[in-house]
């Protein structure tokens, strides 16, 4: 099927290897409800994101309803098809295995969500509720790997890294208040070193009840990466706001060039300031076993984050609009994306493409033609020096 559609895939573990050879971390985009659609995935991929996640898809509904399959997972056969991981919400091994079998021809791998803290998900024994079901999670990934193997896919991890039919199985987790429970969870899900159950692991170092406004638990992350980082590649999800101000150090995190520090097309909603100084390396937590980063909110505001931009450039807005023309999104969703991109980002650099009032004008547009004209007018004013602070 992939050959018929002209799709070409690269094994995610090969991407880890490429990033390591380039002496950098792997850069990934997080599974975000509503937002991690194809047009956005294509945009962040154009600006240095190595591996993209879909929004979480409910495996049970995906298996049973073709409308869910059509709306929840979109691929591109014309233009870039970013290396994509399909994330599922599931609590039955056969459901996850079947859904994974359906998407395997069109993606690089599948991922089980064990991190969503929303009450509706946890009440259905999905997301973070699975952190209390380590044997069930193990059974789900094992059953999924076996199903993919029966379907003819290469699921032998590093052995299939160059196999065009190689596919990955991974898990995204949170941590427990008692870190020993998290270590037991990972040990169970990971399985034996000679034939581990998962290709890699994504860790969001907050508990199910920890609000996103609370900083991630770097001590827990350091312990977990030190314990398991040699056995399986580990991604960090959480507080990845700007590459130059991450609260940890690693041999794979080198200074990244800043492309927006001299631009004259951005304005601030308050006052224009110099980019922040990098943190004192002596105060940073060392994470030598970390393999990659996963960003959510910061990438939503600045799709060019991994390309070294401190704030979203106009070119990223243009790229996103081009992608939405080829892979349409609901108009209100396009507006929200653009409002995020044109506002101040999640990092310390708070420059913005549009003022607060201008962003209100953007949200007042009633259709795509008005929205594009509005943005063109605003950018024309910036080029002509008519922008306001």
From TrEMBL:
Concerning PANTHER family, the annotation shows:
TRNA-DIHYDROURIDINE SYNTHASE (PTHR11082), TRNA-DIHYDROURIDINE(20A_20B) SYNTHASE [NAD(P)+]-LIKE (PTHR11082:SF31)
Q: Does the keyword Flavoprotein apply?
A: yes
Xref: PROSITE patterns: UPF0034
* SUPFAM superfamilies linked: FMN-linked oxidoreductases
Pfam families documented for this protein: Dus
Residues in a coiled coil are none
Q: Which GO terms describe its molecular function?
A: flavin adenine dinucleotide binding; tRNA dihydrouridine synthase activity
Q: Name one GO biological process term.
A: mRNA processing
Q: Which UniProt keywords apply?
A: Flavoprotein, FMN, mRNA processing, Oxidoreductase, tRNA processing
Cofactor names from the entry are: FMN
What this protein is reported to do is described as: Catalyzes the synthesis of dihydrouridine, a modified base found in the D-loop of most tRNAs. Specifically modifies U47 in cytoplasmic tRNAs. Catalyzes the synthesis of dihydrouridine in some mRNAs, thereby affecting their translation.
Protein name per the record: DUS-like FMN-binding domain-containing protein
Where the record annotates domain DUS-like FMN-binding, the positions are 30-242
Q: Which reaction does it catalyse?
A: a 5,6-dihydrouridine in mRNA + NADP(+) = a uridine in mRNA + NADPH + H(+); a 5,6-dihydrouridine in mRNA + NAD(+) = a uridine in mRNA + NADH + H(+)
The protein's organism comes out as: Chaetomium fimeti
